Amino acid sequence: MNYNAEHVKRLELAHKQAILEATKQLKHWEGIKTDYNNLAAKLKTLPDKMSHDIMVPYGPLAFSPGKLIHTNELLVHLGDSWFAEVTCKQGLKIIDHRLAAVDKNIEDIGFTVKNFKKKSEFSQHLNNDGDKSAVEIKEEVSNQYLHPSRRKRISRVKEKPPVRSQEDRNPTKPPIVDEAIKEKCFNDGAFMSRLDELEKFEEEEDRLLLESNLLEDNENPDVRIQTSTSDSKKRVSWSSKVIQGHDADSDDSDDVTNTTTIKFTHTNVTSHPSNSKQQTSGITSPADIGRKTSEPKSILKPATSFGPKSGSNDLNPLLPGPSRKSNITTVSNKIGDRRTAERKFDVAISDYVQEHKETIKQSVVPTKKRPVSKFKSSRIK
Amino acid sequence: KLGPYINMGAVDAQVRLELQKEFDEIQKVQKEIQKSAELQKKLDSQLNQNTVVKDELEFLEPESNVYKLTGPVLVKQDLGEAKGTVSKRIEYISAEIKRQETLVADLEKQLNKHKESVSKIQAKATAVAH
């Protein structure tokens, strides 16, 4: 690995400087140590005599002969303007302490010198270009193995918006609805108003869903069918009576008696005339006609008569009647019902199977995101 | 004084003035930082000394005389008193050191702010020039 020669030189220089400074300090401390040693030697001999003859310094340039008395008394400078009177022996003890501190300093400096010397050795190895046998092994460390503080930050990936169906975005595919009809529909005010009505109806359903979820505990479900899904008990009920059943289906329902008990009650639907055959007999007075014409029979039929007024849609399990507020308020989950009902039942049921989804958590989730209704989505398109 | 990066000919006089002001501020702050650093060093050495004195006082025999140098006079002190005084001084010095540290941190922040404003003005000036 070729390191930049300049940089290596600078590194060496820095190392040398550091070593120089450390050695300078070392010398300084060594000097202090010798001083203390000399002092200790002096103190040992000082109390031997009552007084010593010395040359006393007199100003900066002169000396004069004199005597050193009170040979055992020492005034020690403890540091920071503090002094203490001690004997020679105590003085020696103090010196010992100080020498210990000095020795420690010297040791520390010795360590730094050693460190820097080793560093400079290593950096000399760096300079060694000619050594082909030494191969530098570099390994890339993936982000996950690094400490969190050193990891490269991965910016948060924005969640993709829920993928709308390809048909929504891809204009090249042929539209399901014929353009002419589509235009006609959108231009038709009555149709649009009908769609608005249906939207309102959906919202009402939602509200009812909310209420029924709250009421769920108090209800007696009509039908209990144990399904394989363990975390939610599905309760299914017929919201009104079965008029025509194939034998097979009735057998099916009977067969299920092991795990299910199907009890159904007739809903007293007073305002709404029951379907198909009983319809014609329902009109007994002119008032009934008015009632009949004003109330929509199926979802595609507006309040004002718009399409064919037949009972054909009654057999369609996909379409819920608008005012199915049965006495048994098993209106829960009508949206789910519509979907489950889409699994075609060959039974000519006047009405649809309602599925009551009972979750273990009996808390209402009113803020659950409803899927956009097809009417709304078709309008937005 | 304004650095080698700006083409002086292209810079507006007013911008120059602003830059000058900012640079003066920077220098002031830098000086203060230096002062504070020196003070810290002094305080540090004082703290060291005082800790040594404290240790020595511990080692002393109780009957020995302790003196404090106040001016030209050595005033005799009680050993216990001396120990207390030294401890208090140690505390005071440590507090001073901490205060100086926070001061330095503040000054550095100010310095950074000024440097940022200088770079902003420079960027503006070069943008205008172009």
TrEMBL record, chain B:
Keyword presence, Coiled coil: yes
GO molecular function: protein-folding chaperone binding; unfolded protein binding
Keyword ATP-binding included in the entry's annotation: no
Keywords, in A-Z order: Chaperone, Coiled coil
Coiled coil stretches, renumbered: 19-49, 90-124
GO-annotated cellular components: cytoplasm; prefoldin complex
One Pfam family hit: Prefoldin_2
GO biological process: chaperone-mediated protein complex assembly; protein folding
InterPro entries associated with the record: PFD_beta-like (IPR002777), Prefoldin (IPR009053)
Subunit structure: Heterohexamer of two PFD-alpha type and four PFD-beta type subunits. Component of the PAQosome complex which is responsible for the biogenesis of several protein complexes and which consists of R2TP complex members RUVBL1, RUVBL2, RPAP3 and PIH1D1, URI complex members PFDN2, PFDN6, PDRG1, UXT and URI1 as well as ASDURF, POLR2E and DNAAF10/WDR92.
Similarity field: Belongs to the prefoldin subunit beta family.
Entry protein name: Prefoldin subunit 6
Organism field: Ciona intestinalis (Transparent sea squirt)
